[in-house]
Amino acid sequence: MELSGRGAMFQIVTETGGPMTLIPTLTETISRARADLRMGLPVMIGGYLAAAVETLSPERLQAMRALGQPVLAITARRAETLKARAYDGGLARVQLPGDADLRWLRALADPADDLRVPLKGPLATERGGDVTAHRAAIGLAKSAQLLPAMLMLPAPALPGLTELAAGPLLAQLAHEAAMAPVAAARLPLQSAENSRLHIFRPDDGGAEHYAIEIGAPPRDAPVLARLHSACFTGDVLGSLKCDCGPQLHAALNAMGQAGQGVLLYLNQEGRGIGLANKMRAYDLQNQGFDTVEANHRLGFEDDERDFRIGAALLKRLGFDAARLMTNNPRKVSMLEGHGIAVTERVPLITPRNRHNTGYLDTKAEKSGHLL
Ligand SMILES: Nc1nc2c(ncn2[C@@H]2O[C@H](COP(=O)(O)OP(=O)(O)OP(=O)(O)O)[C@@H](O)[C@H]2O)c(=O)[nH]1
Ligand SMILES: [Zn+2]
């Protein structure tokens, strides 16, 4: 490759790959795009200008409307609550009435006021045509833990906006991130003095995950293991609404007593929807919906977690078999499907109280938990 002065300088920096190595990869561009959406900046996806309704400003909405007629892409879950027809499989493209302002868009995206202001329709939705860009945009919003509602408008690329091709974005969002160990240190715990905390970092710019290794479990035997999804409210604040805090401590205590075990602390708060959306879900639960219905009304699936991470981390730590502490059969099958033999499911039953009993019943009735 011919190099200008600037390029030649780059080449000195890159020892092996040449100057192109300095250009962001697809994974890196996606990570940037997530940050853009969270800040309220639109991104370009497959020839569409795509903005997250949750973070869109009135000025940017006005600027988008000046360029043409946008549609609002929402999930079929959210469309169902809004009584809008979803012709595109898992999603719907809602047409914007001429007077639709940011308040209108937010009301469609966020179910907080659904009961107070029930009728948003009738909503007209589009059918036919290629929806790859819309699907990719919804996937990107979810992976940024934003409400899955994206304002979409075909537009020429604008300078400075992050640009992504729709098909590759969709494929990459389904791709498993590689986990690299970054640091580990001895960390004596109340439940087990002989413990180490390992930090793992994914290559996709996503959240770091942790492994607490108790004792020195032999790598050639099934390890007593728990995959624990982050729950700030339960783990840190001692919330009575769920069973997470008591489960975390019960698992660590059991491993401490056994003298060995591995607890993976996966930063998938709120079953993968993030703490802000979990609080939106709690607000809906206070209005009478159960934990599954609340997720659906927000436009999410019941469980948006990626349990492949758990299998990948166990493998990175050198284990290929586990005695898994869980009541969730999906965790067992996901591990088994990804190369970890589960030789035993160890139940992890914690006390009920008047605040968590409905939640536990719903997990048993709708999510197949063995409680
Ligand atoms: N969206 C949502 N997430 C919740 C709610 N209550 C708890 N959570 C989250 O649910 C997850 C529970 O994680 P785990 O205890 O590891 O998993 P589990 O599916 O309950 O399975 P077990 O291994 O049997 O505990 C955590 O990420 C919590 O933050 C809720 O009402 N809505
Ligand atoms: Zn919890």
Automatic annotation (TrEMBL):
The lineage of its organism: Bacteria, Pseudomonadati, Pseudomonadota, Alphaproteobacteria, Rhodobacterales. Pathway: Cofactor biosynthesis; riboflavin biosynthesis; 5-amino-6-(D-ribitylamino)uracil from GTP: step 1/4. Its EC number is 3.5.4.25. Zn(2+) binds at residues 231, 242, 244. It is an enzyme of class 3 (hydrolase). PANTHER family: 3,4-DIHYDROXY-2-BUTANONE 4-PHOSPHATE SYNTHASE, GTP CYCLOHYDROLASE II-RELATED. GTP binds at residues 226-230, 247, 269-271, 291, 326, 331. HAMAP family: RibA. GO terms for molecular function: GTP binding; GTP cyclohydrolase II activity; zinc ion binding. Its cofactor is Zn(2+). Binds 1 zinc ion per subunit. The active site is at 303 (proton acceptor), 305 (nucleophile). InterPro entries: GTP_cyclohydro_II, RibA, RibA-like_sf. This is GTP cyclohydrolase-2. Residues 184-347 form the GTP cyclohydrolase II domain. GO terms for cellular component: cytosol. It comes from the Bacteria. It catalyses: GTP + 4 H2O = 2,5-diamino-6-hydroxy-4-(5-phosphoribosylamino)-pyrimidine + formate + 2 phosphate + 3 H(+). GO terms for biological process: riboflavin biosynthetic process. Belongs to the GTP cyclohydrolase II family. Keywords: GTP-binding, Hydrolase, Metal-binding, Nucleotide-binding, Riboflavin biosynthesis, Zinc. Catalyzes the conversion of GTP to 2,5-diamino-6-ribosylamino-4(3H)-pyrimidinone 5'-phosphate (DARP), formate and pyrophosphate.
